[in-house]
Design a protein that fits this description.
Strand order of the largest sheet: 5-4-7-8-9-10
Shape: elongated
Radius of gyration: 32 Å
Order of helices and strands: HHHEEEEEEEEEEHEEHEHEEHEEE
Number of helices: 7
Largest sheet: 6 strands, antiparallel
Structural class: alpha+beta
Strand content: 25-35%
Number of strands: 18
Distance between the termini: 72 Å
């Protein structure tokens, strides 16, 4: 072999063997990886020398001889930089609290993973600042780096001592990384869900700034929990109390009529006085859209036709009556649905007016309107169901869903439940039902 190749080839092979052995026997710390890549840089250096000798012997153009090593060096630097980032980037988890209190007492905390590497043998401990002796711990064998799976969430339950005025310290430890401490505050402010959080490495670290820090609205995306995830929690809650004091129905009750239904007439029509009152109130919102959906039954459809006529006379854009989805056949009386964008926002004037006029005219209806992310944003959905028995109310059964989910129970198909008393939120009364679906909404 030509002498000008022999020495370079010898050292290239020696550094290649050393680099391979180093990578197979050392850990994933940044300084070990750095030494490994320095050894690979030596391999690249001697291989480049061999290439330049070889290209010169074949009389390659000077531009080509120089450009090839430059491109190879840039690719090497990019790979080395990525590898160093991969092993040195902070890896941690933080907890995102559920917006509601499950069965009026428990809050779910969903594990959120950040960083390019998986974490093994992870222990998460939640401490309540007002009662440090109160702690909830859970161990996880592996928390992956492929993103949080809403269909297989990792979560913990905690029962706060002072609901809606909660402060926590959360400590996370695992096999390879430094302990991480999270300060988390959960409040109910201005009828809304308010969260602030700070996550930082506990003890000595080269990472001198917080890993995560947010307050109030800035936390919304970081603390968002997918709606799909909330339907997978076990044990499944019966009711959920929201920050404004309203209660989400997670299962309908099965009312026992106070009198046999066949003993009562199910014929309902809007009287002339009711028509005049509703038309007069709603005409100020002419041009708005309303969709009327009705369950089966000739008397129910006649009642739905009455609402169609009054909205048309009030110069609204009316669609329907149309058949309600089969899953919603169990609803009773009148319900109202609007898009979920109105959650924690002032109600549109036309919705407030419609609710008020139904009360003033004695129309039997649910006092709770439904926030449904699948309802068109510019439309009010008016649901007309069968007449409920005397002594019973529409809200005794579950409400309708605009796009019902599979395998969900129908209204009035679940045994009665007696939820535990919910913690009070001063100055807040229940007026909304958040109809959770697979769509994402806040």
């Amino acid at each position: 072999m030509d002498k000008k190749y022999g020495s370079d080839l010898f050292w290239a092979v020696m550094f290649f063997v050393a680099s391979t052995a180093w990578n197979m026997t050392t850990g994933e710390t940044w300084w070990m990886v750095s030494l490994g890549w320095l050894s690979w840089a030596a391999v690249l250096y001697f291989v480049t020398r061999i290439f330049l000798h070889w290209a010169e012997d074949r009389q390659w153009p000077t531009r080509t001889r120089l450009l090839t090593p430059i491109v190879a060096s840039l690719a090497f630097v990019a790979l080395a930089a990525y590898r160093l980032w991969f092993v040195s980037a902070p890896v941690y988890v933080y907890l995102a609290p559920s917006q509601g209190l499950f069965d009026g007492e428990q809050r779910a905390f969903v594990v959120k993973h950040v960083g390019p590497r998986a974490m093994e043998n992870v222990e998460i401990a939640i401490y309540e600042n007002s009662h440090p002796e109160k702690v909830e711990k859970k161990n996880f064998d592996l928390i992956g780096s492929s993103g949080d799976n809403p269909l297989a969430p990792k979560y913990l339950w905690f029962t706060p001592s002072t609901p809606w005025n909660e402060e926590y310290t959360i400590v996370t430890t695992d096999r390879q990384n430094s302990p991480v401490r999270q300060q988390l505050t959960v409040r109910s402010q201005h009828r809304g869900f308010s969260v602030s959080s700070r996550v930082e490495i506990s003890g000595f670290s080269w990472h001198f700034w917080p890993l995560l820090e947010c307050k109030y609205e800035a936390c919304d995306e970081l603390m968002r929990i997918d709606q799909t995830t909330q339907h997978i929690f076990e044990p499944k809650p019966k009711v959920i109390q929201m920050p404004d004091g309203s209660v989400v129905d997670q299962g309908a009750v099965n009312p026992a009529p106070s009198a046999p239904p066949e003993a009562e007439s199910d014929l309902r029509r809007l009287s002339e006085w009711q028509r005049q009152q509703i038309i007069g109130e709603m005409r100020q919102f002419s041009g708005r859209r309303v969709l009327i959906l009705a369950t089966s039954g000739s008397n129910t459809w006649k009642y739905a036709d009455d609402f169609r006529d009054v909205f048309r006379e009030a110069s609204w854009k009316v669609t329907g009556p149309l058949p309600a989805p089969p899953r919603d056949e169990g609803i009773t009386d009148v319900w109202i649905s609007v898009n979920a964008k109105w959650w924690n926002r002032p109600l549109p004037r036309e919705l407030a007016a419609l609710r008020d006029i139904l009360v003033r005219t004695g129309v039997k209806h649910s006092p709770n309107h439904i926030l449904d992310p699948n309802v068109p944003e510019d439309t009010i959905v008016l649901w007309v169901g069968a007449k409920s028995p005397e002594g019973r109310a529409a809200a005794d059964c579950g409400g309708p869903e605009y796009k019902p989910r599979e395998n969900m129970p129908k209204p009035c198909s679940i045994a009665p439940i007696t939820p535990k008393p919910l913690p009070p939120i001063p100055g807040m009364g229940g007026s909304q039902i958040y109809r959770g679906t697979d769509a994402t909404a806040h």
